[in-house]
UniProtKB/TrEMBL annotation:
Keywords: Cytoplasm, NADP, Oxidoreductase, Queuosine biosynthesis. Belongs to the GTP cyclohydrolase I family. QueF type 1 subfamily. InterPro entries: GTP-CH-I_C/QueF (IPR043133), NADPH_dep_7-cyano-7-deazaG_red (IPR050084), QueF (IPR029500), QueF_type1 (IPR016856). It catalyses: 7-aminomethyl-7-carbaguanine + 2 NADP(+) = 7-cyano-7-carbaguanine + 2 NADPH + 3 H(+). This is NADPH-dependent 7-cyano-7-deazaguanine reductase. It holds the Pfam family QueF. One of its GO terms (biological process) is tRNA queuosine(34) biosynthetic process. Pathway: tRNA modification; tRNA-queuosine biosynthesis.
């Protein structure tokens, strides 16, 4: 039976919860509809997060992203909605979602939304000479 779009994000326990580490996910085939014209909008989503207790299961993320295909959304709204849904499912220490939308009317749009858990501060970056 073929897969179906779903608004459910499945999770699994973080295998290394004692450590801050980042997970980077690229979704090159995000689509939704322009709420004004009904024409398709295409974007690449880049998700980078520092998990706390949970990680997102990738097939469920794929089906979740697919669920926007036939829905009308402004770029700013859909980016923040996806971020809010992932935060609700995972409660990550930190997450950044960058949505790079393809050209529409001669204009490219990139929307960046972030969430930081209260009290979490990243470690100082290591600089090698």
């Amino acid at each position: 039976m073929p897969s179906e779009p779903s608004k459910t994000l499945e999770t699994f326990p973080n295998p290394q919860p004692q450590r801050d580490y980042s997970i980077r996910i690229q979704v090159p085939e995000f689509t939704c509809l322009c709420p004004k014209t009904g024409q398709p909008d295409f974007a690449e989503l880049m998700i980078e997060y520092v998990p706390d207790a949970l990680c997102v299961e990738l097939k469920s993320l794929k089906l979740y992203v697919w669920s926007f295909r036939d829905e009308g959304h402004f770029h700013e709204d859909v980016t923040n909605r996806i971020l809010d849904d992932v935060v609700a499912a995972l409660s990550p220490r930190f997450i950044r979602l960058t949505a790079e939308f393809n050209v529409r009317g001669g204009i490219y749009t990139t929307v960046v939304a972030e969430h930081r858990a209260p009290g979490w501060t990243p470690a100082e970056p290591v600089r090698l000479s």
